[in-house]
């Protein structure tokens, strides 16, 4: 189970590093032209940048504390924080009638819940 948690956390870290990087460094107008990015038009540039920074921090929090052995409790907390973001993302996508993207967000949500559950519970670092 520990290996599955590491693989899942690594996969989610990669996803959120890419997503966060895009939100922080790609201009809002260009980001809005991407497939499935209807949501961008409904939020300010500041919100999008903040969301990107939170995703980058969450991605780092999924891996770095466990690898360094410093405050490993941050791993399930990062997974929980990213899961909350995914709930919001799924709601927005459903409201914008983008069911495919909403299902992708719900898939990420399930994977993040798995990491949070595993690292808070049976495979905690404590």
From TrEMBL:
This is DoxX family protein. Its main location: membrane. It is a multi-pass membrane protein. Signal peptide: none annotated. Keywords: Membrane, Transmembrane, Transmembrane helix. InterPro entries: DoxX. It comes from Leifsonia poae. One of its GO terms (cellular component) is membrane. The chain crosses the membrane at residues 6-26, 47-67, 73-91, 103-120. It is found in: Membrane. The keyword Membrane applies.
């Amino acid at each position: 189970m520990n290996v599955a948690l590491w693989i899942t956390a690594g996969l989610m870290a990669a996803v959120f590093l890419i997503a966060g990087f895009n939100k922080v460094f790609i201009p809002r107008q260009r980001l809005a032209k991407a497939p499935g990015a209807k949501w961008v038009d409904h939020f300010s540039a500041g919100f999008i940048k903040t969301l990107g920074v939170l995703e980058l921090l969450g991605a780092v929090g999924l891996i770095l504390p466990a690898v360094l052995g410093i405050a490993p409790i941050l791993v399930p907390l990062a997974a929980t924080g990213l899961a909350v973001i995914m709930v919001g993302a799924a709601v927005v996508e459903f409201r914008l009638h983008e069911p495919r993207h909403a299902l992708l967000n719900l898939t990420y949500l399930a994977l993040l819940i798995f990491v949070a559950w595993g690292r808070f519970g049976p495979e905690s670092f404590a």
